[in-house]
Amino acid sequence: MRNWILLVVAVCATILAAAQQAEQQVAPPPAILLGAAWYPEQWPESQWESDLALMQKAGVRMVRVGEFAWVRMEPAEGQYDFGWLEHAIAAASKHGIYTVLGTPTAAPPAWLTQKYPETLRTKEDGTKDQHGNRQQFNWANPKYREFARNIAAQMAQRFGHNPYVIGWQIDNEYADQSFDPETKRQFQNWLKVRYGTLNNLNARWTTQYWSEAYTDWSQIPIQTGYGNPGLLLNWMRFVSDTWRSYQKNQIDAIRASADPRQFITTNTMGWFDGFDHYTVEQDLDLAAWDDYVGQGHLDPVRNGASHDLTRGFKRKNFWVMETQPGSVNWARINNSLDKGEVRAMAWHAIGHGADTVSYWQWRSALNGQEEYHGTIVGPDGAPVPLYDEIAQIGNEFAKASPVLAGTSPKSEVAVLHSYDSRWAIKWQKHNGDYDPVKEIVSYYGPLRAIAQSVDVVAETAPLSGYKLVVAPGLNVLSDAGAKNLIDYVNNGGHLVLGQRSAMKDADNTLFTERQPGPLAALLGGHVEQYYALEAPVPVEGSFGNGQGQLWAEMLSTKDAGAEVLMRYGVSNGWLDHQPAVISRKVGKGRITYIGAWLDDATMRNAAKWMIEVSGVRPAFGAVPEGVDVYPRYAADKTVYVLVNFAKTSQTVSLPKEMQDVLKGGAKKTVTLPRYGVAVLSAR
Ligand code: GLA
Ligand code: GLA
């Protein structure tokens, strides 16, 4: 018996050593990856080889596989088939292509939801979703989580040590909620944990209003869009926590058998506000998002802000897990990006700190809901016209990868972003045209144009590294957020609050102190009254003569140290000649409040003032209009990505001699055609 055990131990050790050796022999993937979404389950194996050969020729180094293939992996309950996936990973590896595995939980098999109908989500109108699309599952349902945990565990047991599998994507684009009675009970229990007693909840939500008071937890409804602001906000927090635990369920299943080398991520959707991403991203190794233009063309400012938002989730480099090869299929007009624009967009992503750009998708399924979506090869498996541009990107990524390895963006300016605040404004816009994301971008754009690098982070993030912190529309401010901002100013930072800031506490309850509530004492002034505007009002002062639009707050100063930088002109009588922007020095720090949504030209002047008064230095220096600069830093070098979004060719003189990474040679100037790209390295 003892000998037998020893033999087993010896055999196991040999297998383990062989496995470890196999892993050691595989080189780690390059720092910068070109990728594609590939669906081998949709094709006979005989087809794979020609697809993979074309991928290799284009410089594709990563495929994301499996994220909707549940029925192929588990064709019947408890019966697994991973052979095909094993073959697909191996086939890709022979072409130098690494795999990211998606857990398939966004697309449950029909047998599952038929046998366990409670796993289907209930829509807000009370009807059940059905099989035939995707995301029809109930994210809060325990039975669904059991199946999700199981399929993730099965995959991890099989591929957790596969040397060609570099990471995992959990599910796909978390989005939809469920409104069934069991989920409502979970919400009520969640509230009980958070508030302890009904007295506490009733007081904090001011439920004497409209007899909303609750005498039993089971009375609390789910409200979305219109309802008690405290309840609305807490439902979204419950939704966020539930996505977090939904995800954790799968992370734990994977981590139980996966090599720590394999990262875990999920793919989010830019500004999508269906959950608090800062909550959900905590448990991930890497942030990743799906970057789609849809109709029209790339807006480098708004899209750049989305990149920076995603980089801010983990405060480090991220991935673009999906992006459009030319066009999508879901916009009103699915126009293609221009020739050259796909490449410009890829480098714009890398510049903002993406380490991977992956196209959705390689090749269209022959049937299914997305037959018209852009691809890199056609249904015949032959390249479409865009293929050569993708291959150019692949070739350039390969060249630039060793230079970009270990580099990441770093900024002296932070723009703060808060889901609580965006939700709170969205639910009570007060001016129907008020868009909280547009407000954020209205500050971000001109600041980035001067500073050439901006971080987008939560109000609770570490701020001491920034010279300037700008909080547009930070409407809801928690105690922790307020403390973080007060400490920042007291330690010498410059905090700029944008219109609608610091109005409500973490229960979405009005502060009894006028805006900016807990920051008013530091500011030495406050908001006397806010006005939704039907027409722009004049503003004048340090930022020039311009207009306030959509929203105007009448400010006043209490402290003699608070200066008035801008005043309103003659408008509705109330605002006439009243302060619109005030600022106060606090030791070495400063706090400023901008009470009006400034027009573009005035905002540019405001940004210039903020940058100058805070001592922020541009990362690169002057560039022609339309040319974007993106710095990525390592200890021993800075790499600048330059992209020309202007309509005509532009010449950029470099602040010093730099190495041209794509074309070779030392340069003092570069000339970029429209959508032209340069990657420049400086010591
Ligand atoms: C109605 C209602 C009030 C209040 C006002 C607001 O008149 O009776 O309770 O909601 O509208 O304008
Ligand atoms: C999303 C999804 C993909 C695909 C694309 C199409 O990003 O994650 O599966 O449907 O949209 O644009």
Radius of gyration over all CA atoms, rounded = 27 Å
Low-confidence stretches: none
Overall, the morphology is globular
Task: Name the average pLDDT.
Answer: 96
Tell me what the structure shows:
The chain is an alpha/beta fold and 683 residues long. 34% of the residues lie in helices and 21% in strands. The strands form three sheets. Strands 10, 11, 12, 13, 14, 15, 16, 17, 18, 19 and 20 form an eleven-stranded mixed sheet that branches. A nine-stranded parallel sheet has the order 5-4-3-2-1-9-8-7-6. Helix 2 runs parallel beside helix 4, helix 12 (341-351) runs parallel beside helix 13 and helix 15 crosses helix 18. The protein starts with a helix and ends with a strand. Bound molecules: alpha-D-galactopyranose (2 copies). The site of one alpha-D-galactopyranose has 10 residues, from loops.
